[in-house]
Write a structure and sequence with these properties.
210 residues, mainly alpha, 60% helix
Amino acid sequence: MEEKEVLDIISKLKEMYPDAHCELIHENPFQLLISTVLSAQTTDKKVNEVTKNLFRDYPDVKSFLKIDQNELENRIKKIGLYKNKSKNIVQLVKKLDSEFNGEVPRTMEELTSLPGVGQKTANVVMANAFNIPAFAVDTHVFRVSNRIGLACAKSVQETEEQLKKAVHKEEWILSHHLLIFHGRRCCVARNPKCNECKINSLCNYFKFTK
């Protein structure tokens, strides 16, 4: 896709979603990290429902050290994969305390050394907690960017690399949110609302299927 087309797409998405932002409710980097780990294969809405009371009672690393796996499982059992997530989070918190002085690290290497933290989660934390340029690719970003033509990839990793090349670095963080908002509100997985979409004239999916 030509650079002008990419710029046009980002510009139109900004018009469509002027309030695009991280929808995981958090008050500090630690809460964002936990919320992002919980969000795998679960909606942000469901995560926010669970973390509202969880973060009220356990707002930081120090307090989280007091929670055991069984209690955590009971508190988050509304969301998918809760047993595995609970196990990872308990170990993650212990590692933050023992190796990072209770602070959330800021690098990809350090973040992905934590149990349950992959590249996508690390990118979300770096971008939204520390404003470090990163392009997290979740299911919405993957679907929408490849539909539109911002990327043409079969894997999340490849999609991330292509998006980083296509979009100006200073726009990575916002573009991530714009694509998520578009995927949740318009370019949905089934029956995307192409006729309502302001970027359909620039979209490969619309051109070739409609």
